[in-house]
Sequence to fold (278 residues):
Amino acid sequence: MFRRKDRIEIKTPAQIEVMRAAGLVVGRTLEALRQAVAPGVTTGHLDAIARDYLATHGATSSFLGYYGYPAVICASVNDEIVHGIPGNRVLNDGDQISIDFGAIIDGWNGDAAITVPVGSVSPELEELSRVTEASMWAGLSAALVGGVLNDIGSAVEATIRSAPAGQSYGIVQEYVGHGIGSKMHMEPNVPNYAVKGKTPTLVEGMALAIEPMVCAGSAANRTLDDEWTVVTVDGSRACHWEHTVAITAAGPWVLTALDGGAEYFASVGIPSPAASKN
Ligand code: MF3
Ligand code: CO
Fold:
């Protein structure tokens, strides 16, 4: 097919406000799910909580029915990197679960993911999750007017590689972040690593989902027979963190963070509209 590459969707400030409403549904739901995670809980129960939350907040799911996807969350446990389907799997002490969730309000999408320890996990796993989350925030911090897309992947990768065990971590290549707005997945791809060559300039009104997936061992992965669940080939554990960020003239605004990123950006001295919006 000869089709010109889709251009990157630019949102008006009013459209970004609607994306903020969707992002807050995502952020609040993930907070409720984080608190619900415990040994003995099933991944299907977490999906049910998220479904209820959507229904009572006038939102619909970005995931349900997406290429036939059967749930509103992705629930990826231990060696599952991404796209785990929730069901009757019971969480055990020492597991970790990555929960990915997207919501739509008035046609506008928000998308975020968190990794949550179940009971008590190993210090190595805590560190892997900490580094993965920190790399996401480094990427969000590079969502600046006048920067380029590669600044984001470079910041994510550098943060992972500079961690104490960072040289041995695997950064997933096949699944990347993405533009987001009137659809969940839009141009551009947002890799979690630096790329060669020219990448798009970041301008006001873009919105991106930044979502590093980092493995304790090799990032080599395969998809299970359910055609969704992506697991590490070596069985090592993986963490996944994601936020949706709007690029604004006043700085990055993390639409799926409850405080919009205000606390983090203040701590690193980056101006953000979240400072005055929340
Ligand atoms: N939220 C995932 C992402 O971050 C995509 C989920 S795929 C779906 O890009 F099928 F579950 F929707
Ligand atoms: Co995403």
